[in-house]
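Example record for the data management plan.
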Amino acid sequence: MSAATGGRDTGELALQPETPAAEAAAGAPWLEDLPPRQIVAELDRYIIGQEAAKRAIAIAVRNRWRRARTPEEIRDEILPYNIIMIGPTGVGKTEIARRLARLAGSPFIKVEASKFTEVGYVGRDAESMVRDLVDVAINMVRTEREDDVYEVAEQRADERLLDILLPPAPAAPPEPDPSEAQAVFVVGPTGAVRQSSLPPEEDRRTRSREKLRTLLTEGHLDQREVEIEVAAHGPLMFDLFQPPQGMEGQEMNLSEMLQDMLPKRTKRRVVKVPEARRVLVDEELKKLVDMDDVVNESLDRVENHGIIFIDEIDKIAGERSQVGPDVSREGVQQDLLPIVEGSTVQTRYGYVRTDHILFVAAGAFHAAKPSDLIPELQGRFPIRVELNPLTEQDFVRIMTEPENSLTRQYQALVAAEDAALEFTTDGIAEIARVAFRANDMMENIGARRLQTVMATLMDDVLFELPDRAEKAIVFDATGVRGRLAKVVEDDDLRRYIL
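Corresponding structural encoding:
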């Protein structure tokens, strides 16, 4: 069965965390804890077909969970099942990576193989992917730790904010003789009378503080401005000490060393209460979270649960060129080899072993073949999965089945203008036919063609929608053909628009 995705399968798409990351922090199972069939089911929600690729990913990920439960004497001998996915552009390779990033509770990063250069050339070296993975893990674990103590941080921040709103009273004069003190009685909200054990001023202050706490909690003080002390940002000269690309190791943190040596500076800011509360909560979180524990946990996760997705690996396949931009591509393969095989990489947080990091590579291999990779690197990716080209029927499924399908995305955009957008069954079939024909007559870019076709189809609607009287928009086959016929039939327009 062929496959595709409802979203764009591009290298430029940022991998932004969604709800599964928050679920993982809240105690939901990691991706590794799910059985392979359930992992495939999660991918099926967004990716159509490509069962072979999904099965290979599910097995490789589940093997991480299995390895953690093997006897210790053999655990280190079990190597990850690295995968290389081969298929034309736009069939779902990068989309699988995007969905893994959202599902995985383990550190995950996607990199472009074409961005790396051989050691000795200007650019990023291959080891930087491991350093980036460690940074991802640090942020992930720190977020989890902060979630655990967030309520405590909020309570402490509220107390500090109340101290600002109600400054401490001046030093009290010498206390009088207790035998001469008069009893103080306080009437409560219900009319009950009680004798206060506090001096009158302190009791009055306590009651005022509780009233302020209630107003703060209910948001009645959001428009009030307060003055707080915040840490001053370091001088810009520290940027001069940033290490060059490829040299971000533990020994190169000159900027951090200098900042630690200099005294901490603060400055006063006048902000509204909500912003002050946010700043104070952040400061309390930094005090409550033990960064040494975060670093240790992060390095362990990277070494035993980390996943690195290497996209566009076909761009570094082939023999070494003597000139031009491909001068170092075989050298990049040589640099990737020890990392995939298993080595120790120096990072700003410590040393990381890559022996058990799972590597998933992908490439279209239009101008090169997997056999053009150096033999040693080929051997480090024992699982090869071929993704099939898309058919016209696949385009129909892409437009209707995934939860993030293009039709649903455009319906959500139109709904923001209080309008309704509907695609009939024959209208979706016509869009799929136009996209498939455009791929057949020009460069085949797979599911990405649906993006260009839909953008052309919706151009006039989105432009005129705010002033449009009729808010119910329906696209059937006739309407789709009427809007796209001129573009499809004109060779020049089709080439530059679709």
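Summary line stored alongside the record: DSSP finds 18 helices and 15 strands in the chain.
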